[in-house]
């Protein structure tokens, strides 16, 4: 077992070249980036060392241009083998590059060598390459750079909030006029919104939305520092957030098509059977929200083949999936829970895939899906007290929702929650009618990351990490635990751990669907169910994007506790209460 888990870690964490269809660019074709660049200046100086003067000048907004006026420069000087160093905070995590505009340092006026270290935490920016898991995987975050005299230079991109600059040349001096982040992102409006009487929940909704927004680059990535890749299972919470916050965006079909084109059957997407299942579920969700039948029709040959492949791995009603048997990292050593989760995931994907086949007129495949699901429902594997497995079994109706909550999901509160499958645990709690309790978990678990200084949600988090933990936006005091350096597991040990992972955005979707109460129930988002659940909230209001415009809703409790609802929907949208 240990050997197979070790192989899984190495296999999943290291990207590989997919065989598959690659679309060649037409000769002379011009490709236009969907991204824009915004220049962001530091908000504070976290730390400096050596001979550094005028550091506060870097906090002022500049013009991005070197000039012969050498006033208002920051000076770094070295003597002998010492260094002059400074650590900058840009206020929040972003995807981007570091741009430096230089002045005129004394002769000789040849380029100088500096070292740049990016960090999602102060700890990471202060660490040497290889220290506490610090890496240059996927994006270079620790490197040397030559900077010109009286000029401008830009680094490559990564995901970071903090940047450390060290002057490496001995007995040297540099003048910096500006240091700024060239942040790249999609300039799209936040059409969805959420506001309630609980400011902590409001902030969590916003951070989840922002986390996914940062990952909407050329494709929908998993993380902006590490795993700048399309991982299909991870896409499900991300796509759900896109639907709830941004509405239609081409980054979703573009990413789904990449996964399809680079995974010819009988391969599994990312080598993981559940990830191919998530592709089917996402296709169903996307069609429910946007109703693009022509796009769905393009998926039919692959969808049909994939469904037949999945059904071929069901023996006497029990899943027998090959490839990597994976739900999420915290459950990856529990083979009993994984079997239960795979049984539920197989049912879920066949039900959704069968529904899509029926829409496409593929009666035979839809019938086979129904028959296979009926056989599978006769076998309910043990959940082994895994919150991941119990949540999935509950969501497909193979375990009573109330029992799943009382015997598994409620045990220990936020203990054993995970950033990815935490979304499905919350969904299972909603199925059991435990809306207040789910909001408490959201506040405790996802709010715990905010308490440590997070501006985006992380690849992993354990509620136990809060004990004696230092904030990630400051130097670690003596006697405190360095959360980024000390924790993490599997492929994300220490600083390799991503602090901006889109799969952690589940609360954003959950709050829109269950507190605002809006859920698309017919293809194309033409009909929405409206069933708010306020728990202890005195009010909640917000918006939800559709192809026809934005739905606005507000729920307010009167003195008796009765919820009074006001809703405005675009023409052509039907709201069912």
From TrEMBL:
InterPro entries tied to this protein: 6-hairpin_glycosidase_sf, 6hp_glycosidase-like_sf, Bac_rhamnosid6H
Q: Which Pfam families match?
A: Bac_rhamnosid6H
Outline the extent of the Alpha-L-rhamnosidase six-hairpin glycosidase domain: 191-515
Q: Which PANTHER family match?
A: ALPHA-L-RHAMNOSIDASE SIX-HAIRPIN GLYCOSIDASE DOMAIN-CONTAINING PROTEIN, C, PUTATIVE (AFU_ORTHOLOGUE AFUA_3G02880)-RELATED
Q: What is this protein called?
A: Alpha-L-rhamnosidase six-hairpin glycosidase domain-containing protein
């Amino acid at each position: 077992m240990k050997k197979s888990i070790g192989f899984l870690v190495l296999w999943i964490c290291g990207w590989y070249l997919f065989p598959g269809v690659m679309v060649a660019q037409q000769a002379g074709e011009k490709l236009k980036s969907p991204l824009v660049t915004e220049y962001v200046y530091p908000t504070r100086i976290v730390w400096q060392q050596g001979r550094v003067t005028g550091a506060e000048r870097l906090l002022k907004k500049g013009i991005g241009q070197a000039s012969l006026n050498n006033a208002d420069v920051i000076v770094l000087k070295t003597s002998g083998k010492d260094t002059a160093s400074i650590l900058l905070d840009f206020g929040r995590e972003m995807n981007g590059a570091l741009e430096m505009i230089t002045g005129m340092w004394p002769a000789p006026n040849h380029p100088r060598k500096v070292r740049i270290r990016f960090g999602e935490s102060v700890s990471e920016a202060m660490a040497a390459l290889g220290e506490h898991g610090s890496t240059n995987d996927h994006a270079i975050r620790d490197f040397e750079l030559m900077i010109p005299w009286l000029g401008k230079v830009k680094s490559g991109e990564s995901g970071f909030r903090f940047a450390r600059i060290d002057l490496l040349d001995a007995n040297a001096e540099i003048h910096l006029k500006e240091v700024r982040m060239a942040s790249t992102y999609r300039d799209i409006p936040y059409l969805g919104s959420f506001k309630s009487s609980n400011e902590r929940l409001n902030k969590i909704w916003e951070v989840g939305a922002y986390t996914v927004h940062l990952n909407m680059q050329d494709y929908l990535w998993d993380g902006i520092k590490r795993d700048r890749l399309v991982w299909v299972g991870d896409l499900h919470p991300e796509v759900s957030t896109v639907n709830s916050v941004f509405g239609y965006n081409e980054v979703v079909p573009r990413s789904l098509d990449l996964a399809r084109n680079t995974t010819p059957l009988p391969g599994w997407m990312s080598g993981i059977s559940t990830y191919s299942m998530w592709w089917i579920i996402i296709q169903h969700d996307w069609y429910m929200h946007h109703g693009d039948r022509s796009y769905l029709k393009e998926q039919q040959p692959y969808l049909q083949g994939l469904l037949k492949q999945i059904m071929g791995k069901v023996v006497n009603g029990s899943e027998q999936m090959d490839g990597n048997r994976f739900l999420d990292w915290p459950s990856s050593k529990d083979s009993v829970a994984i079997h239960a989760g795979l049984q539920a995931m197989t049912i879920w994907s066949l039900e959704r895939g069968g529904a899509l086949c029926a829409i496409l007129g593929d009666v035979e495949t839809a019938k086979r899906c129904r028959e296979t699901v009926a056989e599978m429902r006769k076998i309910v594997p043990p959940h082994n007290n895994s919150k991941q497995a119990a949540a999935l079994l509950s969501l497909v109706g193979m375990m009573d929702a109330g029992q799943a909550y009382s015997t598994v999901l409620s045990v220990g509160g936020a203990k054993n929650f995970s950033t990815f499958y935490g979304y499905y645990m919350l969904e299972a709690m909603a199925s059991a009618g435990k809306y207040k309790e789910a909001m408490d978990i959201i506040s405790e678990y996802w709010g715990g990351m905010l308490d440590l200084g997070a501006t985006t949600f992380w690849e992993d988090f354990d509620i136990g990490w809060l004990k004696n933990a230092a904030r990630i936006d400051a130097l670690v005091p003596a006697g405190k635990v360095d959360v980024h350096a000390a924790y993490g597991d599997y492929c994300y040990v220490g600083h390799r751990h991503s602090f901006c992972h889109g799969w952690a955005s589940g609360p954003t979707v959950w709050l829109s669907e269950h507190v605002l109460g809006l859920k698309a129930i017919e293809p194309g988002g033409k009909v929405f169910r409206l069933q708010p659940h306020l728990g202890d909230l005195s009010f909640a209001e917000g918006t939800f994007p559709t192809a026809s415009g934005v739905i606005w809703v507000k729920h307010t409790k009167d003195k008796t506790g009765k919820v009074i609802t006001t809703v405005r929907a675009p023409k052509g949208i039907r709201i069912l209460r």
